Amino acid sequence: MTENINENAIAILGGTGDQGLGLALRFAKAGRPIIVGSRKLERALEAAETIRSQVPGAAVEGCENAEAAIRARIVILSVPFEHTAGTVKAIRGVLQPGQILVSMAVPLANAIGGAASQVVGIWQGSCAELVASLAPTGVEVISAFQNVSAHRLQTLDQPVECDVIVSGAKDARGCIMELCALVPGMRAVDGGPLGSARIVESLTALLIGINIRYKVAEGAGIRITGLGLPD
Q1: What angle do CA 100, 173, 224 make, to 5 degrees?
Q2: DSSP secondary-structure letter at 145?
Q3: Contacts from 88-93 at CB under 8 Å and sequence distance 24+?
C-alpha cells in the first residue's frame, strides 16, 4: 500500500448520509481517525464539522471520495444501491492491494420505483458481489452493516443493540468484525463467504417492512441467539 494510507483510519464514502454519518460518529467516538468522503467536498466538510461538534476532539476530515479512498486501509461504501457501481468505478483507480472495501448497500426496489420493503435481483447475486466484480485485484470486499439503523447509530448515548453479520474473505472479515466491538451494543457475527450477502441484504427489506407495520421509529435490528457470544 502507498505511504498515504493510514492503517488506523476509516474512510466512509457517503458519510454525509444518515447511516454513514452514524457509523462515522460511532467510530470517531471510539477513537478511530475518520475520513468522510462525498462526491461534493462541501458536504464532506459539513459532515466532518457535525462529527466534531458531537464528538469533541475527534480526528475527522472531509474529502472528495477519491481522496478519502486513498488515505485509509478500510473504505466503507455507505451510498445508496443505485450509486454503488458508479462510486466504485470512480475510486477503483486509486484503490491499492491490501485495502478493505466494505459494501453496506442493499438492492431495494425503491431504487426503481418499487417498495423499500422489497429487493430486486441483480446479476452478481448481491450488492456486495457486484462491488467485488468491480474492485481491483488485491482489494478485499466485505459485506457488513446493512441491518443497523441510522437512528440507533446516531443516538450516541444509547447502545446500538444490533448484530452485524460480516461476510467475505477470512482475514478481512476478521478485521471488520473487530470494528464492531468498538461500538457499544454492536456485536459481530461471522457470516462466512461473501455469497452470504445475498441473504443478509434481503433482511434489510424485511426489517423495513417490520418497521412500517410495528411503527418502530428507531429501527428494528437483529440478534442471533445461541452463539454464546457476549452482548
Answers
A1: 135
A2: -
A3: 88/131, 88/134, 88/135, 89/134, 90/65, 90/66, 91/13, 91/65, 91/66, 92/134, 92/135, 92/136, 93/66
Specify the 3-state DSSP secondary structure of 188: strand
CA distances from 173 to 25, 58, 60, 159 (A): 22, 26, 24, 23
Grid coordinates representing 222? 437483529
Secondary structure, 3-state, 6-73:
EEEEEEEECCCCHHHHHHHHHHHHCCCCEEEEECCHHHHHHHHHHHHHHCCCCCEEEEEHHHHHCCEE
Write the CA distances from 29 to 58, 73, 85, 182, 204, integer angstroms.
7, 19, 30, 9, 26
- Per residue in 103-153, pLDDT (tens digit) is 999 999 898 888 889 999 999 999 999 999 999 999 999 999 999 999 999
CATH number of this structure's domain 6-214: 3.40.50.720
| Residue extents of the structural domains in the chain | 6-214
DSSP-derived letter for residue 108 is B
Closest CA to 74 of 38, 146, 24: 24
CA distance 24 to 125: 28
pTM for the predicted model, two decimal places: 0.95
pLDDT tens-digit map of 191-225: 999 999 999 999 999 999 999 999 999 999 999 99
Q: How many CB atoms lie within 10 A of CB 43?
A: 18
